[in-house]
Amino acid sequence: MSSSPPPALPGIPRRTLLAASAAGLAVLVAGCTSAPAAGPNAVTTKQEDEFAAQVPVQKALVAAYAAAGAADPALKAAVADLAAQAGEQLTALTAAAPGAAGSARSSSTTSSSAAPSSPAVGPDARAWLRGQVAATATSHATACLGQSGARAALLGSIAAGLRGQDARLA
Amino acid sequence: MSDGVTMGTENAALRNALAAEHVAVWGYGVVGAALGPEGRGRAAAAEDAHRDVRDRLTALLADRKVEPVEEQAAYALPFPILSGVDAAALGVVLEDGAAAAWVRVLDQAAQRSTKELAVGMLSATEIRAVTWRGAAGKKPVTSALPGLPKQ
Question: Looking at chain B from residue 79 to 118, which residues have their Cβ under 8 Å from any Cβ of chain A?
Fold first, then answer.
């Protein structure tokens, strides 16, 4: 008597579930760069602007890592991998919002989230940095809800990555 | 770009997430059995969290009259679990699998409430994954883009 083997664990090792997900998501960033199409699910100008507004939010976090590192050299070494990942997230966001740098369509949202040139680090650089990470995660998670498709997935993923950073900084 | 999201795509992604949650609930039984008392508590907490999500998803799909995904009696392990480090590595695999499923939900969701659920679950999986990566000796312990395919 022979029995069939148990099903493989989805997502292990990035071949089963991940493969299925990858079919739709491997083009996440690239897909976002194409022009919006007409139709009931087309990305609206408002969505584009709100997505683009998350780029300066992430830029501010990258700047916060640099500022915290400058204020506390030991912290800089300890969080170098986190800072690199924040930069990686910024690269992904920027690639998905090619018009973000020059977008001036909207106004309040975009201008209010512009990255500060030199953020002031608090007396406890680690705690201050952790606050910046958490606030950025919340901003991306909130923005994710107003997006759809690949943009929602990317913002949600970045938000989750920053929640993980927050946990590591705790 | 048309996202093409509908209730149909959303429900399919939620079924996919339910399958991943079944796996996580089962897998944490294996993780816990291979860990000492301290780690076992962490595994039990993770198992409870995934069980809660599984039940929530099952109820959500039932409300929508969508057939849920049934759990399997067992799943093939990706590698032998011979030590606590192996168990922690399996925890990473379970959380990464769940993260991929929740990113898929975000990609396919039509309703705001579903996105809210997904982004919360995705964050929770990554927070647990950070702990397991540390226990498994993996570096870095964080992931820049949880749930997304590596570029």
Answer: 93-94, 96-104, 106-110, 112, 115-116, 118
B33 in a structural domain = yes
Per-residue pLDDT band for A36 (boundaries 50, 70, 90) equals: very low
Instruction: Find the CATH number of the domain harbouring B77.
Output: 1.20.1260.10
User: CB-CB: which of B19, B123, B125 is closest to A10?
Assistant: B19
CB contact under 8 A, B149 and A25: yes
**Residue B130 belongs to domain spanning:** 16-135
Q: What was the pLDDT predicted at A64?
A: 97
Whether the ω angle into residue A123 lies within 30 degrees of 0, i.e. cis, is no
pTM of the model: 0.86
Q: What is the SS3 assignment for A87? A: helix
CA–CA gap between residue A48 and residue A52 (Å, rounded): 6
Provide the mean pLDDT of chain A: 78
Q: Does B7 touch chain A (CB under 8 A)?
A: no
Q: Do A137 and B73 touch (CB under 8 A)?
A: no
ipTM of the complex: 0.95
Residues B70-121 have pLDDT tens digits of: 999 999 999 999 999 999 999 999 999 999 999 999 999 999 999 999 999 9
Is the predicted pLDDT of residue A17 greater than 80, yes or no?
no
**B25-45 per-position pLDDT tens digit:** 999 999 999 998 888 999 999
Cβ of A12 within 8 Å of Cβ of B97? The answer is: yes
How far apart are alpha carbons A43 and A36 in whole angstroms? 6
User: DSSP assignment of B67-126, as one string?
Assistant: PPPPPPS--B-SS---SHHHHHHHHHHHHHHHHHHHHHHHHH--SHHHHHHHHHHHHHHH
Q: What is the total count of domains within chain B?
A: 1
Distance from CA of A10 to the nearest CA of B (A): 6
On whether residue B78 sits in a domain, the answer given is yes
